Amino acid sequence: MTKKTIAVLPGDGIGPEVTRAAIQVLENIARLHDHEFVFKEGLIGGSAIDEKGGPLPLETKEISAASDGILLGAVGGPKWDRLPGANRPEKGLLEIRKALDLYANLRPVKTYSALIESSPLKKEIVADVDFVIIRELTGGLYFGEPKKREEIDGETQAVDTLLYKESEIKRIAERAFQAARVREGKVVSVDKANVLESSRLWRETVDDVHDSYSDVELSHMLVDNAAMQLIAQPTSFDVIVTENTFGDILSDEASMLTGSLGLLPSASMGSTGVGLYEPVHGSAPDIAGENRANPLAAISSAAMMLKYGFGMEKEAEQIEAAIEKVLAEGYRTSDIAAKTDDAVTTTEMTDAVVKAL
Amino acid sequence: MTKKTIAVLPGDGIGPEVTRAAIQVLENIARLHDHEFVFKEGLIGGSAIDEKGGPLPLETKEISAASDGILLGAVGGPKWDRLPGANRPEKGLLEIRKALDLYANLRPVKTYSALIESSPLKKEIVADVDFVIIRELTGGLYFGEPKKREEIDGETQAVDTLLYKESEIKRIAERAFQAARVREGKVVSVDKANVLESSRLWRETVDDVHDSYSDVELSHMLVDNAAMQLIAQPTSFDVIVTENTFGDILSDEASMLTGSLGLLPSASMGSTGVGLYEPVHGSAPDIAGENRANPLAAISSAAMMLKYGFGMEKEAEQIEAAIEKVLAEGYRTSDIAAKTDDAVTTTEMTDAVVKAL
Ligand SMILES: CC(C)[C@H](C(=O)O)[C@@H](O)C(=O)O
Ligand SMILES: CC(C)[C@H](C(=O)O)[C@@H](O)C(=O)O
């Protein structure tokens, strides 16, 4: 019997509903495999601002740091959109990434054949898509200093800084090569080396790290070209590794390929061993509380936690298989249903997954 | 009779072939409408490095500055890929943008119904796509200082700077609102205001400028969401305005929608009245000199020069109509042909356009 403590940060909008679904699945996995999962809940995002005055209360930081893995729902919503930058829901997410040094964001993009028809792309383009984007998450344009506004000669200007140290690039490159080894052995490193100095250092450093992973095939691609190739030939990719901002844009672009944003999980991992697992989709305030949200991305994120955080490969596969099964059986929440009438609720979908386990 | 001097910068790869095609079309337009176009050729990019030691020789700068409009082919190629940053072909492009203050890059994205089948996206998603991306081209992450490498505590780090002054944002926002007025009247301003200080200034400034264009509908969208919406609902856009780097990525992403990269033109305009017109596609060194390149993007760029640079709307429309006609008649260069056997050459395609004028 393995005991694990899981920090649960439901957040805003549909966050609470989908994390509840993931917990239900995890509890069943625990029962089936005789594990003990202890869940500790914490506030984050808008709900934390409302109750505690800030998007990442100290208590949440402590619960998270002391856990074996963090399950997050989603943050943000129109209610908090007019708050100043430092006190917005998203700030909670940025802070927890930095506080726990979660520098590697993994976003697998994989076509579920049952859902291929709902992709905006043609079937022949997206069939068999299966790659992972590894986004650097604690450096680059998001966190570099100076990041400020100033008056120069009576005019306002604003500055952000894209900064990378060699060591930051090295560790994310290593993650990428390691991931490629247990996949198809191909890494594409994405940068803008024809314009950015940071990209030139990125490219050189990735090349250096590659010397120790010469069994993995490495190529470099400019970010504008990558934005094209993701659409033109998404099946050509295996592992993509890139800078924080480029990764933000490209991974959201990639999330559209499979036609099932509501199914995509993500993992953010770092140096401490504690990872953060969350759906790619946002807080969807328009359908919050209506029992209509698709819980599969949160459930799939929980599976990533089992696999990458706890080394429970078998349990993770069991969840993935259950998801494929319910999709094959025709269960569809409203986001992926052909007709809204046929859609099942969040709880019905979750129960179906539990039954399929 | 109107006389115009046109600087022609063929550049590298297929650049010379496609600019030659554009010149042929312009000469015919001149003849038909009794204009006089004087063409002055200059070196840029890799060929300039080879012949003059740098990607933007002084002579080219002078020819360009003294012209009424600049027609550019494409720059770059593997031959020059190992040169240091300051002496690469692309540097010529960046320098001429800065030297002539070409701060507004216009990239229309429009579906040609004859080519809709070659899009990677489903027909129902891309039919009737018709928007323009207005990318800020002389500021932001491309040109901000510091942009350098340094050793800190024995470790190398590299820095780029995303800097915007209010006045830079103001003038590009004005372009966007003006463009929207003669289109569908809708501007989407794309930024990353939840993370970047420069984006928050961007958003506020665009809002301020909007006060003088209240007949135009304005909304703001985060760049990651924009990367999704371009695929999910491309027909929802009319005018998109955004920062230099975001524009680079999003406009290349958008160029894939119509399935006809080889047809997309661009215009870069500034404060001096001299604009630079170039195809969106690159130098395609693999097919250079084979008379296989698609000349339509260069021809269409020439049409943009007539329209935006010289105020010759009728002439521009005549070229656009000729392009539509040859496509409808089934002329296809190899990049857009269903079977390579049926493809016409660069010169055949150009002759067909001239005949259709
Ligand atoms: C909410 C926002 C700050 C965040 C980011 O930009 O990193 C989100 O878009 C993401 O990708 O996780
Ligand atoms: C060649 C390169 C420097 C250039 C850019 O990034 O601006 C190109 O990608 C473009 O979009 O015109």
From TrEMBL, chains A, B:
<feature type="binding site">
    <location>
        <position position="224"/>
    </location>
    <ligand>
        <name>Mg(2+)</name>
    </ligand>
</feature>
<feature type="binding site">
    <location>
        <position position="248"/>
    </location>
    <ligand>
        <name>Mg(2+)</name>
    </ligand>
</feature>
<dbReference type="GO" id="GO:0009098">
    <property type="term" value="P:L-leucine biosynthetic process"/>
</dbReference>
<keyword id="KW-0479">Metal-binding</keyword>
<keyword id="KW-0560">Oxidoreductase</keyword>
<feature type="site" description="Important for catalysis">
    <location>
        <position position="142"/>
    </location>
</feature>
<dbReference type="InterPro" id="IPR024084">
    <property type="entry name" value="IsoPropMal-DH-like_dom"/>
</dbReference>
<dbReference type="InterPro" id="IPR019818">
    <property type="entry name" value="IsoCit/isopropylmalate_DH_CS"/>
</dbReference>
<feature type="binding site">
    <location>
        <position position="224"/>
    </location>
    <ligand>
        <name>substrate</name>
    </ligand>
</feature>
<feature type="domain" description="Isopropylmalate dehydrogenase-like">
    <location>
        <begin position="5"/>
        <end position="353"/>
    </location>
</feature>
<keyword id="KW-0100">Branched-chain amino acid biosynthesis</keyword>
<feature type="binding site">
    <location>
        <begin position="282"/>
        <end position="294"/>
    </location>
    <ligand>
        <name>NAD(+)</name>
    </ligand>
</feature>
<comment type="pathway">
    <text>Amino-acid biosynthesis; L-leucine biosynthesis; L-leucine from 3-methyl-2-oxobutanoate: step 3/4.</text>
</comment>
<feature type="binding site">
    <location>
        <position position="97"/>
    </location>
    <ligand>
        <name>substrate</name>
    </ligand>
</feature>
<dbReference type="Pfam" id="PF00180">
    <property type="entry name" value="Iso_dh"/>
</dbReference>
<feature type="binding site">
    <location>
        <position position="135"/>
    </location>
    <ligand>
        <name>substrate</name>
    </ligand>
</feature>
<dbReference type="GO" id="GO:0000287">
    <property type="term" value="F:magnesium ion binding"/>
</dbReference>
<keyword id="KW-0460">Magnesium</keyword>
<dbReference type="GO" id="GO:0005829">
    <property type="term" value="C:cytosol"/>
</dbReference>
<dbReference type="InterPro" id="IPR004429">
    <property type="entry name" value="Isopropylmalate_DH"/>
</dbReference>
<feature type="site" description="Important for catalysis">
    <location>
        <position position="192"/>
    </location>
</feature>
<feature type="binding site">
    <location>
        <position position="252"/>
    </location>
    <ligand>
        <name>Mg(2+)</name>
    </ligand>
</feature>
<feature type="binding site">
    <location>
        <position position="107"/>
    </location>
    <ligand>
        <name>substrate</name>
    </ligand>
</feature>
<comment type="function">
    <text>Catalyzes the oxidation of 3-carboxy-2-hydroxy-4-methylpentanoate (3-isopropylmalate) to 3-carboxy-4-methyl-2-oxopentanoate. The product decarboxylates to 4-methyl-2 oxopentanoate.</text>
</comment>
<comment type="similarity">
    <text>Belongs to the isocitrate and isopropylmalate dehydrogenases family. LeuB type 1 subfamily.</text>
</comment>
<dbReference type="GO" id="GO:0051287">
    <property type="term" value="F:NAD binding"/>
</dbReference>
<keyword id="KW-0028">Amino-acid biosynthesis</keyword>
<feature type="binding site">
    <location>
        <begin position="77"/>
        <end position="90"/>
    </location>
    <ligand>
        <name>NAD(+)</name>
    </ligand>
</feature>
<keyword id="KW-0520">NAD</keyword>
<protein>
    <recommendedName>
        <fullName>3-isopropylmalate dehydrogenase</fullName>
        <ecNumber>1.1.1.85</ecNumber>
    </recommendedName>
</protein>
<dbReference type="GO" id="GO:0003862">
    <property type="term" value="F:3-isopropylmalate dehydrogenase activity"/>
</dbReference>
<keyword id="KW-0464">Manganese</keyword>
<keyword id="KW-0432">Leucine biosynthesis</keyword>
<keyword id="KW-0963">Cytoplasm</keyword>
<comment type="subunit">
    <text>Homodimer.</text>
</comment>
